[in-house]
Please model this.
Amino acid sequence: MPMYPQQPTPGLPEDPYREAPGPVPRQANPSWMGQVHPGHYRPAPGHGGQPLATVGPHLPETALRVSRARTGLAGLSIAGGVLAFLSLFLVVPFLLSNTGAGGFLIGFLASLVPLSVVLAAVHIIDRWEPEPKRLLLFAFVWGAAVSVAVTLLIQPFFVIAFQFTDQADLQTYMATVQAPVVEEFAKSLGLLIILLAARRQFDGPVDGVVFAFTIAGGFAFTENILYFGRAVAESASPASDLAQIFFLRGVMSPFAHAIFTGTTGLVMGFAARKWHTGASVGAFLAGLLPAMFLHNRWNSMGRGFLLDYIMVQVPIFLLAVAGIIFLRVAEKRLTRQRLLEYSAAGWFTPDEVQLLATPAGRRTALSWAATAGRKPQMKQFLKAATQLANIRQRILSGRDVPLHQAEERHQLQRILELRAAIAR
Model:
């Protein structure tokens, strides 16, 4: 694997960020994702040093720990843990009162199956640029505990606000109005918190989908415990009723909540590229509308459920799958282009960009590193390069440029350290 630039030049420039914005090269916009305004484009900082394995001071592990702490993930994790713990005092008694101890246990175990399916999908979507595990854990506990508690606290006000004399009308109202509005608000509130508190980790629409799917998977997990457990506790034939409700929720629709909230995550992901608090809140509100609409359509299916499922819900699911694939392809193209810009500045060779920015190249790089006993270092190098591409995209967005340039400088130094660890 090549570890050096093609044409190194002596001397490290005093100010690698001195170049002013210039015209946008034709290839700088490889897809619709991440379009660059001409006034915001600037070349990548020049490397201009000696062979990359020896350039730059060694960055101590303590400095890396300080940098990671600055992301705010620790504070967000603690806050999420506290909120989840407090939420359990409301959620667990609610579940036990509806399912009983036996129903709760069976419902819990049965709910692990659809949850595993959703989390497996999250893992596949998130493989290109894995999100921090603590942030994904926050998203899950928000969905499984906090959003459920928020729903339980808010939904009584919807019942009080609209008085119904007919029980059937009340049930219809709760399913088609209250549930879509309250549940999507409660779930997506977690997305907004992630975007505002950990915005450096929220790089675009793919990240929005990943966080949304994780939150929705947690919410569906708790909701499934309620439905599965209640089928056991309240039925005269618990086995058949559990099988029926499990087939409906666990087999036919494990991604229902994920698709609902995923639309909000998608909208907020596009807003994340702008790095503007007002735009983020606006995207949160705008993203709730399609989520609530899809949720309403799902809960409105009645006697013609099977026909609506085949004619409406299955195409929506297939459209969601196609959209995620489309986003992944666009994300990979953008990563490759941004790394090519660093390659032109001397930080990578073109061959390295192929290894870092294509699925086949990454497999080759990891295989090579495994034979050399450096696979963990190579994984970190791949991740750091992808993060570097995202940092450059933020710089080219034109917002908070000095802040992101400082982050870029730190990331380039980390790239040097990881490169040295692989090359030695």
